[in-house]
Amino acid sequence: MPKARLTREQIAERAALELPDGAYVNLGWGIPNLIAAYVPSQVTVYFHSENGILGMGPRAKPGEEDFDLVDAMKVPVTLLPGGSYFSQDDAHVMTRGGHLDICILGGLQVSEHGDLANWRIPGAKGAGGIGGAMDISVGAQKLIVTMEHTAKDGSPKIVKTCSYPLTAIDCVDTIITDLAVIDVTPEGLVLREVAPGFTPEEVQKFTEPKLRYSTNVPAMRLQPR
Amino acid sequence: MPKARLTREQIAERAALELPDGAYVNLGWGIPNLIAAYVPSQVTVYFHSENGILGMGPRAKPGEEDFDLVDAMKVPVTLLPGGSYFSQDDAHVMTRGGHLDICILGGLQVSEHGDLANWRIPGAKGAGGIGGAMDISVGAQKLIVTMEHTAKDGSPKIVKTCSYPLTAIDCVDTIITDLAVIDVTPEGLVLREVAPGFTPEEVQKFTEPKLRYSTNVPAMRLQPR
Amino acid sequence: MTSKEKVYPTIDAAVADIPDGATIMFGGFGGAGFPNNLIQALARQGARNLSVISNNCGTGEGELGLLFKNRQIRRVVAAFPGPGAKYFQEQFDAGEIELELVPQGILCERMRAFGAGIPAFFSPVGVGTEIASGKEERVIRGKRYILEQALGADYAFIRAYRADHMGNLIYHKAARNFNPIMATAAKFTIAEVEEIVGTGKLDPEAIITPSIFVDRIVQAEGKRYA
Amino acid sequence: MTSKEKVYPTIDAAVADIPDGATIMFGGFGGAGFPNNLIQALARQGARNLSVISNNCGTGEGELGLLFKNRQIRRVVAAFPGPGAKYFQEQFDAGEIELELVPQGILCERMRAFGAGIPAFFSPVGVGTEIASGKEERVIRGKRYILEQALGADYAFIRAYRADHMGNLIYHKAARNFNPIMATAAKFTIAEVEEIVGTGKLDPEAIITPSIFVDRIVQAEGKRYA
User: Exposed (0-12), middle (13-18) or buried (19+): which is A186, by Cβ within 10 Å?
Assistant: First the structure.
């Protein structure tokens, strides 16, 4: 029986620890959308939504929804004190202009050079859709990708060169998966943490490009230090 | 004794008749600044100021000035009902983006091709200053220049080619002076009206490029028809 | 006070003169701020062969969906047509609709450029991706950029919260989204609004779309969400 | 609630770390919206060799005039330095100050581009004039344009009406002018404000500068007009 990898919620929990106090943050579709619930209590961050919200709060309670106040995933949300509304073009002044401290997106593939593919599976039916991910990827001061380490067929999603349509090149700073935390550096991929119970060598097996790591790679943190 | 040309106020009065009902209008320095007082009572126009005002009203009465509500000439003004405030970049979205129906600027020289020079006298001391005139000139749906027909030394200000530093090329639609109303057309300058008591031939004498005119050029209108 | 009356008596009257072949921008994102009354009136009016610019392409018959169902649309510029855009997806798969897929922020920026008199600009978005295909690339101060073109339209159909009679607009929460920028980028802007108030009743400091960008206003009916 | 405290106790503290050689944007137009308290604090602080970006260059010792009088400024980007800018004009005539004269709307647009991540854009303004000198010209869809570059700064010194503790800003009438756009175009924005209110006290629909663009806030003293 294979060892248990982290759950999607645990990936989100680990990713939440990357948010510094006072940061302006955009969270994308998928695992990133789970992160807000795990922000440590002593940390205050401000969530941006590319449809024109800064200071977005939790989802609206059932019965209290305002369908004019939705996030980028059409989910009714709330606004925290100090939040503001603005137009979509101003929302993307914030993304593309480099004003967001950290953005966390889902991923289909990440290359060893930090290229990201996350908007379309080759050969998929339909028109596809880019949304805001390209603008967010190029503009983020720090871009974190959260995803499962391997695809459903077991093939690595961290690859030498992305074979899927690209979202942006040379944009990813850190990858957080169900097996590891990996930094993209000019010297290549650096294995910073491994999932509890896994060894660096095991993580390397599920990763196409070569990982650099020290002799003592710590286990992934799942609670605030 | 030379015949009496129009006064600056009369030039403004004539220019005011060019404003159609419902127009959004920017008025520049000099004679244009006198025009608002002459808008016919049955016509409503909305004045734009490039420092971020739409729906600007008359000058503030003495004792009622708010020095945070000034026009582009630093003069305390008022805001009419339905007016709005916005930032300087948005003010120039309106100018450059072609949203203003009519702009009326002062002029130092206008060429027969509609080039305008109005920001600097060659050899003048000091740094000079462009202000908003270049943005306004290129963006106006219709650009009218009001000025004296000749310079203080008697030389024509309507010329074949401007010798002064240009504000914008190919931008002037109509010139209103103390001697004439002249349209800039692809076929050249067309004399539309002459000042009362003057003949087209007299106006031509004070104008460097050739004017086209019919046998019956009407006198300049100074009251609403 | 307004000399050119901008308030139209009915929604149908507000769209009566839209010609076949027009290019129309539609505000709205994620279910909020779509001009659903105007869309439904345009379906009744029947203009065909339309080019549309919109983030989404409808959900079933809702939002833009109705215009696709009626086969009134020939060409689309969108950032995220959407999996729920049933009629669009069917016609796209059948090769009946031309689609230009644009990153969302660049969709905004190309419209803003048009409204601001900027014909083209360099952008970092999409460099090295299929979005860059056919576009001029240039290195500026050491970084790679592609050249994007301004995007305008004949009409903008937008949704606002309140208008005054002069055409000033304010919006409601995240229903603002694409509406203000489209108002600047179309030759002619038609706004459906929840409430029309007297000129002077909106706070001049809080007006989001100044009247200069609005040509026609009409009272929306109950259908806030299609 | 704000974890990174942005409110500074004194005006002098708010500008204490400005280094020699910094590039600083200053809001204000026609006497309204100048950050006169910050300007006077910077005069006391004494940073030298500054590059400044401002529509005007002061009136006598007022507004930016004091910094010119103190010879703290080496380079200027401006649209209309102004005939009343006595100290600037003297030093300009003496060849002691480098000036880049920019059309007012392009000054705005170059700053907006910087804040929006756009490195350069084509513009119709100044085509065929001395402004076009040295700039790439291109015909796009039949019209002539010149290429303009984004304009950023290390700091923006701005003036607002009200701030909340988080850094959201609203302005007062035409004192808004260049202030909001400069807040987006500088790495670090310092705002002097007439009033600081509790977070949540500003209407989220009417906030002009969202908190993300503001790094430091300080209560202005009486000197609204220098």
Answer: exposed
pLDDT in tens, C95-104: 999 999 999 9
Domain count of chain A? 1
B217 within a domain of the structure (yes/no): no
Among C166, C187, C205, C208, pick the best mutation site for testing chain B contact (most B Cβ within 10 A): C166
CA atoms of B108 and A184, how far apart (whole Å): 61
**Would you call B126 an interface residue with chain D, using a CB distance cutoff of 8 Å?**
yes
Q: Is A93 on the interface with D (CB under 8 A)?
A: yes
Whether B77 is in a domain gets the answer: yes
Residue A61 lies in a domain: yes
Q: What is the CATH number of the domain that holds A21?
A: 3.40.1080.10
- Provide the ipTM: 0.97
Give the span between the Cα atoms of B209 and B159, in whole angstroms.
6
How much of chain C exceeds pLDDT 90, in percent? 95
Tell me how far CA of residue C108 lies from CA of A45, A93, B34, C180, in angstroms: 26, 10, 39, 10
Which domains are delineated in chain D? 3-124+150-219 (3.40.1080.10)
Any chains having at least 3 CB pairs less than 8 A from chain B are: C, D
Mean pLDDT lowest for which of A22-31, D160-169, D170-179, D214-223? D214-223
CA B46-B50-B52 angle, to 5 degrees, is 80
Distance from CA of A25 to the nearest CA of D (A): 10
Q: Please check whether residue B46 lies inside any domain of the structure.
A: yes
**Is the overall model pTM greater than 0.95, yes or no?**
yes
